[in-house]
Amino acid sequence: MNILISNDDGVFAPGILAAKQAVEDLGNVTVVAPDKNNSSVGRRLTLFKHLKINKCELEDGSLAYSVSGSPADSVVVGANYIMDEKPDLVITGINQGVNISCDITSSGTVCAAFEAVSLGIPAIAVSLFMDPKTSYKQDENGEWFLDYDFTLTKKVLHDIVLKIIEDGFPEGVDLFNLNVPSNYDCEEVKITHLSHKMLDKQVIDRSSSEKSELFNYSLDENQDDEGLIMITPDLVNEYEKDSDGYALIVEKRPSLTPLNVNMTHENLKDW
Predict the structure, then answer these.
(1) Measured between alpha carbons, how far is residue 95 from residues 40, 83, 229 in Å?
(2) Please, are residues 96 and 126 in contact by the beta-carbon 8 Å criterion?
(3) Which of 45, 92, 160, 210 is most open to solvent, judged by the fewest CB atoms within 10 Å of its CB?
(4) Bigger pLDDT: 189 or 146?
(5) Which pLDDT value is given to residue 220?
(6) Does the pLDDT value for residue 231 go beyond 70?
(7) For 254, what's the count of Cα atoms within 13 Å in the CB-facing half-sphere?
(8) How far is CA 24 from CA 20, 28, 159, in A?
(9) Are 89 and 117 in contact (CB under 8 A)?
(10) 2-192+238-259 has which fold?
(11) Strand 190-191 relative to strand 175-181: parallel, antiparallel, unpaired?
(12) 221-241 in b/e burial notation, b at 16+ Cβ within 10 A?
């Protein structure tokens, strides 16, 4: 099996190396990803503009390719230019964050998988939900760091790809959206549907007392703030049962959502 791996966090993000390590025993793996972070860019494509490809080396010494574009660009370039043969599977991730609900259309990780499907390639988008209560740790000098424990995510991803090799994709499924919690109570994967939404979005300006520290963080003291606003998202806490958010955040277990990219609703006979 020929596997193309991309992401939206950038080619040197720890999650893309973890994804490669999870499946490198199952096929020929090629890594092609943006040269820098491209979170929340959706399915943005760079058309009729030059893109720069560079060879680079991952932490394990293996070859990867960086692209000066979006996650979707990286999938197109990897599948149609860098790889000698069209990949049998595209994996995007492992994203350092969460991608659930109908909000996935803003995700660079998931939309890179959508782009793969448009090329006729089945895909898996993978995300590790970092629990802020347990993922932030201190070293011996008291410095805070994020502990990226990809152990369970790698195991689940490996098992899913192995099942795909043995049984193929389920009929009618174009891609899987996999989310795994870093702080889990159960390792068993639950098949889920998309939640209504993942984020509550609020628009703030400098008058916001609740989020003033966030708003002012990147402002130069002498900068004129007239007309400046910021969209700030908060993660939704309540989810309907059997949804991806309920499995991931309430039950604290891996969520696997089968998706079909054809969004057409056909039942309009009585409209």
Answers:
(1) 11, 23, 27
(2) no
(3) 210
(4) 189
(5) 62
(6) yes
(7) 21
(8) 6, 7, 12
(9) no
(10) Stationary-phase Survival Protein Sure Homolog; Chain: A, (3.40.1210)
(11) unpaired
(12) eeeeeeeeebebeeebeebee
Question: Encoding tokens for residue 168?
Answer: 């193929």
**Residue 124: HSE in the Cβ half-sphere, 13 Å Cα cutoff:** 31
Q: Specify the amino acid at residue 159.
A: D
Q: Which has the closest alpha carbon to 59: 15, 9, 22?
A: 15
- Average pLDDT for residues 48-53, to the nearest whole number? 97
Measured CA to CA in angstroms, residue 25 lies from 7, 28, 29, 33, 216 at distances of 20, 8, 9, 20, 47
Residue 31 gets the label, from left (phi > 0), alpha (psi -120 to 50) or beta, of beta
Return the exposure string of 184-218: e unless at least 16 CB atoms fall within 10 Å of the residue's CB, then b. beeeebbebebbeebbeeeebeeebeeeeeebeee
The H-or-E segment that residue 28 falls in is strand 28-34
| Top-ranked range on mean pLDDT: pick from 16-20, 226-230, 265-269 | 16-20
Tokens of 81: 């230019």
Tokens, residue 198:
């993942």
The predicted pLDDT at position 223 comes to 63
DSSP label at residue 105: G
Angstrom distance (rounded) from CA 109 to CA 42: 8
The pTM of the whole model exceeds 0.90: yes
**Tokens representing 15?**
């999650």
